[in-house]
Amino acid sequence: MTAPAAIARSPQRFAIAPALLPWCGLAVLTLLCLLLKTELPWLVNFPKEWTLPLASYINAVTDVVVAVIQPGFRALSALLDAPMRGARLALAWLPWPAVMLAVAALALKSSGERLAIFALATLAYILLAGYWPQSMNTLALVLLAVPISTVLGFLLGVLGYARPRWRPVLLGALDLMQTVPAFAYLIPLLLLFGFGPVVGLIASAIYATPPMVRNTMLGLDRVPAAISEAGLMSGCTRRQQFLQVEVPTALPQLLVGFNQTTMAALSMVIVAAIIGGFEDIGWEVLSSMRKAEFGQSILSGLVIALLAILIDRLTIGFAKAPETGPTRAMRWMTPRRLALWLAVALALAVVIRLAMPDATLLPQTGLRMQMGAVNEWLLGLVRDYAWFFNGVRNAVLYCLLLPLRVGISGSATPAMWGFALPPPVLAGYVVLVLALAALAMRAFGWRGGLAVLAAGLVLYTGFLDLPWPVFILAVALLAGQVGGPRLGLFALVGFGLILVNGLWPQLVQSLYLCTLAVLLCLLAGGALGTWAAHSDRVSHILKPICDALQTMPQFVFLIPALMFFKVGEFTALIAIMLYAIVPPIRYVEHGLRHVRADVVEAVEQMGATPMQTLLQAKLPLALPVVMLGLNQTIMAALSMLAIAALVGTRDLGQAVYVALGKADAGMGLIAGLSIAFLAILADRLIQAAVARSAAASQ
């Protein structure tokens, strides 16, 4: 090697050494912990006597604060109860023909004839299924929660736009609101407002506020400077410029925020039913699931899914113009004609009520009354094919879930797998991991080799048997090197607080369950997204399926999983995957479809096969978009933890749910913040990794 070449290579060698040195020290610590964990069991199982009673302190403070401020919140609850009852009575008074006419007119104006037909079919199904009164009660909650969330979100978004210094605090609060499970903040709401429909209304309004805040700030930030300057040059005051120039320009983005706010409020209907206790669709789904009446569960769950899709299409149609332009029916339905149709619908309602004041106009026996035979058929189906469903569940449980939880060392026992691995096989496993690490190091550098070694260690020991000092230091070191010292300190403090509060076993359960769900979603969703990116037909088939999965409330995903696989971690895994599989499909397809065409053509002209073009050109270029999909997949998986707790998991979500049942505000808050910490840490890590990758590629 010549002297200039040696000089050129020496900085790279010395640049890697400082980053690698802490990992070498951590490897030594890991080896010591693995050798000593039998003699020092506290390295794996954090002693209970070392935990801090932080939850008790929070409960003591909460009791004092609640006693002082509870009367004011109870008064607010009584104040909100009147419009809640009024909205329910008004929707119950409206006859179904008038409602169908009004909704069809709105759908025709929003997106054209196809949505109008879908709206009529959806409302007809709700009517024939026998869930019309319950659906009106659900709409009453949504119709009250959405304006509250919209106004509050708009004001907070304007505050973040006008006061940039306050934006980091506001964004941090929004991150917490969107990542803390709804069950966690239901506890203080129950203590302050009591039990009833108003608590569900307030919980829905709180949960649905962040999307409006983010879209308001985004829309106002994107107002072109030329438009703002034109308003100033026209002599507008600051208030006139804001109300007459900036807000109208940002209106499309504000309407997108309204759409997301509406869907978030609708997704809370079952959670609101848990604490609301009134007859709506959420309560029907929850009660039928508790009774194992799968026919009613599917029937009522389909009502929520159809309502969610209909409301999503209605609101997004007003927010965005169709890609192909307005249809003939949309052009015909002018605002004046829309107002006329709505007036006709109201007049029809008045005429019907005056002519038949006591008539319900509802089917005497809806489909829900005929679900007994369907329940028996479904139970018979599950019973007759129990061998198949149990086989699938046991295969995944013993081949995937257990190895991640207790590792190969804990699974390869006569009690679990029916055999124990002999020492030569274990030695072969070590050699295989080292060989794969060497290959990864050669292809991706020392970080790739280190990742393979870490995966091999976790697969051998499992999450449950991994020493907690090693795990905490490894994640903190990774966060520090990827995102900087502040992120590393955030990881260290966060995991430390979870540890000393006695939630480490629940954290481990959450980590291995979400890790497996995310990996399977990336494999299945990535394959489907790649297929859709290369086939327009597949893309058209997957689009409505993804739209339906994305709009359905989280509880609905529990129904099929619970019906076929009963309670347990496998059922939770299925529900999490159904909810989290959409982001990898959408982002992989979007990333691959928007790779620069000239780069792909250059690679193909060099003689690359389609597979080589995909793996060596398209995927690397689409990696930033794919990483965003990974981020959203992790967020979705973590958000399902508290919902999946209803089917028997023992993770942080279960801790939140148990705390809700006991009205334990301290433990509920700590467990909820633990889930939020995992979500925020994963988000910051992925954002930092994408930023580093983009900086390195420039």
From TrEMBL:
Keyword Cell membrane carried by entry: yes
Q: Spell out the protein name for this chain.
A: ABC transporter permease subunit
Q: Which UniProt keywords apply?
A: Cell membrane, Membrane, Transmembrane, Transmembrane helix, Transport
Coarse class of the protein's main subcellular location = membrane
Which cell locations does it reside in?
A: Cell membrane
**TM regions (residue ranges):** 20-38, 50-69, 89-108, 114-132, 139-162, 182-208, 261-278, 298-318, 338-356, 425-444, 450-480, 487-504, 510-533, 570-588, 621-645, 665-682
> Record's family?
Belongs to the binding-protein-dependent transport system permease family.
CDD domains named among the record's database cross-references: TM_PBP2 (cd06261)
Q: Name one Pfam family in it.
A: BPD_transp_1
Membrane disposition? Multi-pass membrane protein
Q: Specify the ABC transmembrane type-1 domain's residue ranges.
A: 135-315, 507-686
Q: Fetch the Gene3D superfamilies from UniProt.
A: MetI-like
Phylogenetic placement of the source organism: Bacteria, Pseudomonadati, Pseudomonadota, Alphaproteobacteria, Hyphomicrobiales
> Which species expresses this protein natively?
Mesorhizobium vachelliae
